[in-house]
Specification:
This protein is of the alpha+beta class and about 180 residues long. The protein contains three helices and nine strands; from the N terminus they run βαββαββαββββ.
Length: about 180
């Protein structure tokens, strides 16, 4: 059975995703990185992974949908202005930022709290660096590199099932501010 991951994420609008993908390709060439580039339609900022463990996928999806429907948050902007490698063994090349992510971090905190009370995660807090993965499994690490800020207006979040080799299945989308 292929590896499955269930997670909540933010997806940039298609035009922004195209710009992010172009940036990733350009910088992969500049840094001479080898790895698997993320397709524009798969570019996302993960909010939280839901550990399936031995739990029934359908039951976790349903509880995740119910928890997501309880989130009350206003839309916000996110800004990423740096790239670097994350990870120890597999050097994922990512787009990230600090100054433009305060509202995103607050939203994730509210989501985590809701997931905790829905018994979908073990603890309500954890370290988090918001990022968009540009290149998976790079052949070496790259230090932090400033880039022209990339911004988008976040007005929704999604529940996604990623199946290795098959792509993403979007299982739910919730608008912010409604």
């Amino acid at each position: 059975m292929p590896v499955q991951k269930l997670f909540f994420a933010l997806f940039p609008p298609p035009a922004v995703a195209g710009r992010i993908a172009e940036l990733g390709q350009q910088l992969a060439r500049v840094h001479r990185l080898r790895g698997a580039a993320a397709a524009p339609d798969r570019l996302h900022c993960s909010l939280h992974l839901l550990d399936l463990g031995r739990r029934d996928l359908d039951a976790v999806v349903e509880r995740g949908r119910e928890a997501a429907a309880r989130i009350a948050a206003e839309p916000f902007d996110v800004v990423f202005d740096r790239t670097a490698s994350f990870g120890k063994a597999a050097h994922h090349f990512v787009l990230y930022g600090e100054r433009g992510t305060a509202a995103l971090k607050a939203f994730r905190g509210a989501l985590r709290t809701t997931l905790y009370y829905a018994e979908l995660i073990d603890r309500p807090a954890s370290a988090y660096t918001p990022h968009v993965t540009l290149l998976y499994g790079g052949d070496r690490a790259v230090e932090e590199y400033p880039v022209t800020p990339i911004r988008w207006h976040v007005d929704a979040f999604e529940l996604v099932l990623s199946i290795h080799g098959e792509g993403h299945r979007h299982l739910g989308k919730w608008e912010l501010g409604s």
